[in-house]
Amino acid sequence: MRPRAVFFGTPRFAVPSLDALTEIADVVGVVAQPDKPAGRGNVMTPPAVKVRAMELGVPVFQPVKVRDGALEQWLREREVDVALVVAYGRILPLAVLQTPKHGCVNVHGSILPKFRGAAPIQWSILAMEAQTGVTLMQMDEGMDTGAMLSVRVTDIGEDETSEALAIRLSAMGAAIVREDLPKYLRGELAPVEQDNALATMAPMLTKEMETLDFRESAKKLHAKVRGLKPWPGTSTQLGTRRLIVHESTLRDAPTLLAGAPGEVVRVDKDVVWVATSDGAFGLTELQLEGKKRLRVKDFLAGHPIRVGTILAPADPSPTIPPDPSEEPKGGAQ
């Protein structure tokens, strides 16, 4: 007999895991965050998981609160064997976690105990990790502190953005659901407690993180451009105008070119090279605020940037992202 399950999830990242769950269980309900205004017209827009659930014909519950007893009662009425939680975006109370027969199981986008918290994919790039992955874990009241059931690992590409990595990890999450959740329900996976001494945090991203500080290393700046894409993005100043940096590179970086941090030291057809604390950092796709985003070749045709130009405010203040080891002020499971 197929197990009865409910699914908790909200963004596009969670959709492949919902599809995988329907392959191995009878999904009798989906819980997603409420519709939110989006776009220029602030049109109320359903989250991606709700859209997919409606396509599958699965009823959707979108509670505004998760601690008033309504969610627990809704879950109890469905008499489910397990609840699968993937990027739902709310911290669930103990009463909800204990309602399914086999509890709540989470797909988390990192190799736990690294990068517990709201933005594990972005922080794996910001921290310049060589690898990341997904973890299937039992949920408890802590922030991604539950026992691990299985892990999948993948290399992070040299130029891979958090946007691209999320797509890959989303597919890996679906695979771990499809392959290992049935084993858990059959009692074939032994939970492994996390080593809290090795834990790091992945705090929520903030708009204030977007400014590029060229006093940092070229490698760290490249990680920042990749890790903060698509939001909040990264930017600097070109004169008095905000210059958004959409893409960057470290490939074929020039050597033996001296310059103050933020100084343009070379301009090639496709790359603007900027001095950092330890070498050159290449800008390959740019956008002046209010204008179109352009590859550097096209950008330079309308907005020439000369060697010696200083990118950044005259007296930039440090804008270092928070240390991943710090506790976040908020987060989501």
Description:
The protein has 333 residues and is an alpha/beta fold. It has two domains: 4-202, Rossmann fold, CATH 3.40.50.170; 212-302, Methionyl-tRNA Fmet Formyltransferase, Chain A, domain 2, CATH 3.10.25. Helix content is 24%, strand content 25%. It is built from eight helices and 17 strands. The chain has a seven-stranded mixed beta sheet. Strands 12, 13, 14, 15, 16 and 17 form a six-stranded antiparallel beta sheet that branches. Strand 12 (234-238) and strand 13 form a beta hairpin. Helix 1 runs parallel beside helix 6 (162-185) and helix 5 packs antiparallel against helix 7 (218-227). The chain is elongated, with a radius of gyration of 22 Å. 42% of the residues are buried.
Q: How would you sum up this structure in a few lines?
A:
It is built from eight helices and 17 strands. It has helices spanning 15-24, 48-56, 70-78, 94-97, 120-126, 162-185, 218-227, 296-302, and strands at 4-9, 26-31, 36-38, 43-45, 60-61, 82-86, 104-108, 116-117, 131-138, 148-155, 201-202, 234-238, 241-249, 264-267, 272-275, 280-288, 294-295.
